[in-house]
Amino acid sequence: MGKIGARIGNKLTLQEQMRERERLKAEAYQEYLKEKKAVDDAINRMMAEDRHDAEKRTEKRKTMQEFMARSMQAKEDLKRKTKEDEATTLEKIKKYQEEAEHREAQLKIKKAEENAAKEEIFAKLNEEEVKRRTEKEYIENLRIDLMQEEHEEAERIRELQELEKREK
Fold it and tell me: What is the pTM of this model?
């Protein structure tokens, strides 16, 4: 019975070793699954951050394009309005000249005095119109520059806030 007892003991020892191996194998597999999940989570987080960053860049580019389009439209509107004002002024000047010629034909005696007055009024109107246009254009350019600076400052603040959020 000594050999049989030894065999049974060996068999029990082998079974116990096999159960231990199976348990270690199961633990190793669980550890592998845990590590794989952590890696997958990290990759998914990085991919989400990359997508978020790409969306922010696209949004920023779109905002800048819209701002540029509005600025260009404002400049075009100003140019069109200036041309309309010039045409109106030229029409007024033309009408004035026609009236002056009509009066000149009827009042030949006062021709010298009226011509001097007309030249003075014409020069003054022209000077005032040029001054008004120059001031208007200067103010519009200042407004556009200010809008652009405000927009850029808002973008910088937003980017700093985004950076602070990420660092937290």
Answer: 0.34
